[in-house]
């Protein structure tokens, strides 16, 4: 058991408040830095903990690193029979939290791992390693940044070592990437995720487990995790190699910093690593939405003041308008009285008939359409979100290095199967807010690019776009085809939030 209790002050500064986890002689506390009035994470150790010196030494070495993506160590000491390590208290969502409902969006997960790989590459340059990369140690903070927890200190607490630490950490990054893409864990450790499925005793690749994983991310994962060459590229043997391979992934934009106080995390984020978590749980999404919705609306612009001169001018204008209306009414009445009966009846007979009101036709299915790509798939697992009637969900393309799809192909899109040939009056597409999209409407009776004819096009499109065929068009398949993409997070990506197909209605 720990020899310290809540309320204990270390170094006349750090007051222990809440015991988060205790196991194996190591205890994690949430504490208060009384000088700077901020929460901190503190590890303490029982007198019989055999690796105190190794932990304190590792913490002091880690404290010299300045990469903001690594947990900052504030203090480490072994004094008067009490050893402790003080580091920053990290608030946010770990990768384990993000994976609670399944794999995250591939490029978002890859971006988190890319940030960790770069930070870890810097640490290896300084001679420090991690050796315990699990989903609970990679955090998307409440301030909208990436944080990798436990550099050097985790390994010292758990007594981990490796003859090839660079390769071990590269494989660890591969495991994190695999978990982000599939929601499964490809390792022996029980980290809170289901184990990766096997095929003849070998770990299935991400694309075998989850549909829609981009081919290049699948290859990078295998090169790091399995240490195998893929697509003519060698294995990724160091964190720097992994960072370089993931450099093409767009990085998430920092989120606005919330002023809401973080809740206390009273559970360990690493079941295999006692006392390692320094994170509170995330704020429930419905509370965050409620906070966003309760911000005060903008004030209306002030109304202009009117003086006496303005009132006189307004009166004159009103009198002139009334006079003009009276003269016009008298003239119209006179003309109507002189109109022959036959002419009036003829005019009535020629009044237009009621116009047809288009009707909405729901598609049977939706799919990502990428006939020109190497993998011939474009986010098929999220295609139904574009026709679910919910403006908050979307289908989107992969991210590309340029607006012309990285010059890899002429186009990519979302194809709808209407179940049978239907006449098309128009198609309303809700795009993202970024301008620059060029979208075409193609219609045909086969889900093949050569059978789909372009019937409408919009350039520089954004927001809600109506694609109307110039002439009568009928077909079973409706394709919204991107030939140019708008900017997105430093790259280019097309997004469709909703699609509505209208067919001509009856009179």
Automatic annotation (TrEMBL):
Compositional bias ranges of the Low complexity kind: 255-264
Ranges where the record places region Disordered: 255-279, 343-377
SUPFAM superfamilies: Galactose-binding domain-like, Protein kinase-like (PK-like)
Keywords, ordered alphabetically: Receptor
Residue span(s) of domain Protein kinase: 14-317
Xref: InterPro entries: Galactose-bd-like_sf (IPR008979), Kinase-like_dom_sf (IPR011009), Prot_kinase_dom (IPR000719)
GO molecular function term, any single one: protein kinase activity
Protein name: Protein kinase domain-containing protein
Upper taxonomic lineage: Bacteria, Bacillati, Actinomycetota, Actinomycetes, Streptosporangiales
